[in-house]
């Protein structure tokens, strides 16, 4: 009996050890990291966010600088937009670098103070004869949009529009050029940067038109379930206010040669 009990105990011990090893090998959410590491995700949206340009994009440059001022060690990963939303909502990452505000998203995420302000305009081929005074005028127009991206509450909630969801901005530019969509919403800085860097052979083919579809602000967003969200947002907001006050944000914008896209008078934190 003593021998059997001894063998059972050894088996139990082995099982317990195996279970503990598997537990510690399981992936932890971002919030479990020790120290002041803050794990950020962004989608490729140059020149705002991009791992291929200086500072990983204008917004990323501002956000990572703010976190360093606040005493954090920011780590940035570039992934598709829809995955970024899931990663932050499920606490596998801490925050998304740059997002617009919309009502649906606000149910799942908390927002920082805005740190950039930019208008959204419709882009079209110059030869396309389209104008509008209200979104109702665009009922029969094919509009290319990025899947899961926001273009302001009015546009997002206009279910009567013919919105064609596409995977990324480059696909939209190609669809515009080849006439498979008629117009597409872009911020002027993103649209022109994309055309001038990726499609320079078509640079004279496109134009922005009409009144701004929306004036949008860029925010850092963090999942409502994140246990440290209040502290992170407070620290980040204080750093952003400091950077606005001492001119650091304007210096970063100038370093990216984007002053014309983000004039000082359009920058406010309300």
UniProtKB/TrEMBL annotation:
Specify whether ATP-binding is a keyword of the entry.
no
Q: Where is the signal peptide?
A: 1-32
Q: Where are the transmembrane segments?
A: none
One Pfam family here: SBP_bac_3
Query: In terms of domain of life, where is this protein from?
Result: Bacteria
Occurrences of domain Solute-binding protein family 3/N-terminal (ranges): 42-254
Q: Quick check: keyword Signal in the entry? A: yes
- Keywords from the named record: Signal
Question: Which PANTHER family does the entry mention?
Answer: ABC TRANSPORTER SUBSTRATE-BINDING PROTEIN (PTHR35936:SF25), MEMBRANE-BOUND LYTIC MUREIN TRANSGLYCOSYLASE F (PTHR35936)
Name listed for the protein in its UniProt record: Amino acid ABC transporter substrate-binding protein (PAAT family)
